[in-house]
Amino acid sequence: MATRVQRCGISGLLGIGLLATAACSKNAAQNPQAAGMQAMPVKVMVAAAVPVNDASEYVATLKSRDSAMIMPQVDGLITQIFVHSGDKVSAGGALMEIDPLKQQATVKSLESARAAQQANLSWTKQQYERAQGLAAAGVVSKQDLDQAKSAMDASQAQMDSLDAQVHEQEVQLRYYKVVAPRSGIVGDIPVRVGDRVTTTAQLTTVDQPGSLEAYVYVPVERSSQLKMDLPVQVLDSNGKVLADTRISFISPQVDNTTQTVLIKARIANGNDALRQSQFIRARLVWGTHRNPEVPILAVSRLAGQYFAFVAEPQQSGAFVAKQRPLTIGETIENNYEVRDGIKPGDKVIVSGTQFLMDGMPVMPMS
Questions:
Q1: 16-55 pLDDT, tens per residue?
Q2: Contact between 248 and 264 (Cβ < 8 Å)
Q3: Segments of the chain assigned to CATH 2.40.420.20
Q4: Which class is domain 32-50+290-365?
């Protein structure tokens, strides 16, 4: 009998002990600090709203405002090329020569005709002067004097015509030597000595280092937002801003093949970092808004969703790490723009995030 009572007492005590242990475990799970878990020191950054550009990026082409395309003004065979690609030339410097022999012969023939006409003009002038003297003495009639005057005038007109023809052909002869219209750097030379060229052939280019224009084609859906002086940023392949400029031209027409609107923006390019016909990235800044930023290293990604830990204060004055899903916007240098998930003033944890769990006690440090 006593043994049975003792057994029942022992069983009751064991049951009470198990219930107490379960209660303590539950409290420890709900409050890690109550279980004696040490707060982990972490570095935090207070999220602040910063201005963020509302922008779109497009592929653009650079074109020089000081580039001259060299094309011949006459047809013929190239006999000499005086420069190489990359050479610096002065305005009026010879670039190449087109065979001038036929044109030289034409000029020489006209010069000979002009010399013969000059002799004829001199003879008619002498005849007119003689007729004037005879007419004054009453030896020849007024009709003979008029005929001598007419012959002299006809000879003078013929002389003036030949002078004009010789000048025209001499000007034409100068076109057989192709010269630089301005000082600059010689571009690619696609022709060779012996090639026959026409007035539609491109011989080379002469470029002056300096200002460029970015040609950007914007989808017609955004054309209503285009306006003069809208900010434009020229970016390199890594997203670094190479130049800041503004829209200087908006096409009044839509390209019917691409359904885009052409805009232009001038670029100073003082350090020659950009080149003619180069493809670049152009960012059009439509406006600005304010959102918090967080460092990229403080953000983790799981199954396409972005997360960050925030040190949340508790009623006891302690802090715990809370994992929050984020909606990410633009990437600005080493930070993400956060459109949703973090508010200005939140303490974003920026160190030791790989060791954190949701609800874990933390000790924020600036």
A1: 443 434 444 444 444 544 445 788 999 999 998 888 888 8
A2: yes
A3: 32-50+290-365
A4: mainly beta
Confidence class for position 210, pLDDT limits 50, 70, 90 = confident
CATH number of the structural domain 74-205: 2.40.50.100
Specify whether the CB–CB gap between 339 and 329 falls below 8 A.
yes
Give the integer Cα–Cα distance in Å for 345 and 9: 58
Could you give the CA distance from residue 33 to residue 362 in angstroms, rounded to a whole number? 10
CA-to-CA distance for 293 and 307, rounded, in angstroms? 13
**Buried b or exposed e, range 191-204, using 16+ CB within 10 angstroms:** beeeeebeeeeebb
DSSP result, 208-219: -SS-EEEEEEEE
Nearest-Å Rg of the Cα atoms of the chain is 45
In single-letter form, the type of residue at position 111 comes to: E
Q: What CATH class has 55-66+208-289?
A: mainly beta
> Running DSSP on this structure, what letter comes out for residue 228?
T
Return the number of other C-beta atoms located less than 10 Å from residue 284's C-beta.
23
Give, in order, the Cα–Cα distances in Å from 92 to each of 39, 178, 181, 184, 186: 80, 9, 6, 11, 13
The amino acid at 358:
D
Q: How far apart are CA 207 and CA 92, in angstroms?
A: 14
- The answer to whether 326 and 342 are in contact (CB under 8 A) is yes
Residue 220 carries which DSSP code? G
Tokens at residue 264, please?
A: 């232009």
Question: What integer pLDDT is reported at residue 36 of this predicted model?
Answer: 54
Are 346 and 51 a contacting pair, CB within 8 Å? no
DSSP SS3 for 190:
coil
The structure's pTM equals: 0.55
